């Protein structure tokens, strides 16, 4: 008996190895800069395996990797302000999950590629919301992020752009972001489970890919302070752009 015996029936050993390679690269980006994992992972992984499978896979492995950070975030976050944004995610996540569960894989891949390209442009623009706080706006940002998370686990940029632009201490902004995604991922886990997206196959695959992703996160974290953050962020942006292009369905015949 070997590792191939444990893989889902539609996932070959070569596909599992490719997913591990993508997970390591995206995990390294997450560990160093705190962002970019889903924006790199989803376009590439969904071109290798079914989008529904890899979205559930990323949700499970990233939730486990981030869970230890939540107690500290709970202590430092502005829980009241975060709760307002979480209300939006409560609506957005199930809607995004619904579309992921009913859309054809190729259609989903096109949407993921377009979403990630738009989110990359948002990151490159350096956008930060610096206007006044409004409950309706907070709920809307949370809903947009939740929808992106439910559909493709790519809800980071709207929340990061919003919180980092607020006149609050960076440590509070980071805690708010972590706490929001803890809640958003919890909603996603429930939503994915009830729609059958979290399956035996995705859980088994997470046992194989998850440790590689964790190694990538640890490796990226070890580089923090040693490598130039500006250079590394530029590399992350380049990797996201490459992932978007490589993940386009129109290139399947060329890349395969």
What does this structure look like?
It contains 12 helices and no strands. With 256 residues, it is mostly helical. It has one domain. It is globular.
Number of domains: 1
Q: Looking at the structure, what is the overall shape?
A: globular
Largest beta-sheet details: none
Task: Indicate the percent of residues in helices.
Answer: over 70%
Helix/sheet category: mainly alpha
What is the total tally of β strands?
A: 0
> Could you tell me the radius of gyration in angstroms?
17 Å
State the separation between the terminal residues, measured CA to CA.
29 Å
Strand/helix succession: HHHHHHHHHHHH
The mean pLDDT is 82
- Strand % is under 5%
Question: Mind sketching the topology for me?
Answer:
Elements: H1 13-33, H2 37-48, H3 51-66, H4 70-76, H5 79-102, H6 105-125, H7 135-152, H8 156-163, H9 170-194, H10 200-223, H11 229-246, H12 252-255
Helix pairs in contact: 1-2, 1-10, 2-3, 2-6, 2-11, 3-9, 3-10, 4-9, 5-7, 5-9, 6-11, 7-8, 8-9
């Amino acid at each position: 008996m070997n590792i191939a015996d444990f893989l889902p029936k539609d996932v070959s050993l070569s596909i599992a190895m490719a997913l591990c390679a993508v997970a390591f690269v995206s995990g390294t980006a997450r560990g160093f800069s705190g962002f970019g994992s889903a924006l790199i992972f989803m376009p590439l992984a969904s071109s290798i395996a079914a989008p529904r499978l890899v979205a559930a896979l990323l949700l499970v492995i990233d939730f486990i990797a981030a869970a230890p950070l939540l107690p500290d975030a709970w202590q430092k976050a502005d829980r009241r302000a975060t709760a307002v944004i979480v209300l939006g995610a409560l609506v957005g996540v199930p809607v995004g999950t619904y579309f992921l569960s009913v859309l054809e894989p190729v259609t989903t891949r096109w949407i993921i590629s377009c979403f990630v390209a738009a989110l990359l442009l948002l990151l490159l623009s350096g956008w930060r919301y610096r206007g006044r706080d409004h409950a309706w706006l907070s709920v809307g940002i949370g809903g947009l992020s939740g929808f992106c998370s439910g559909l493709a686990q790519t809800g980071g940029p709207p929340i990061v752009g919003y919180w980092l632009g607020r006149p609050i201490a960076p440590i509070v902004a980071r805690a708010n972001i972590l706490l929001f995604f803890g809640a958003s991922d919890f909603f996603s886990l429930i939503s994915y489970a009830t729609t059958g997206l979290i399956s035996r196959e995705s859980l088994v695959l997470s046992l194989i890919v998850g440790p590689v992703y964790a190694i990538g996160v640890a490796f990226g974290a070890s580089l923090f302070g040693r490598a130039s953050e500006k250079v590394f962020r530029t590399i992350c942006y380049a990797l996201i752009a490459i992932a978007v292009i490589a993940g386009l369905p129109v290139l399947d015949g060329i890349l395969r």
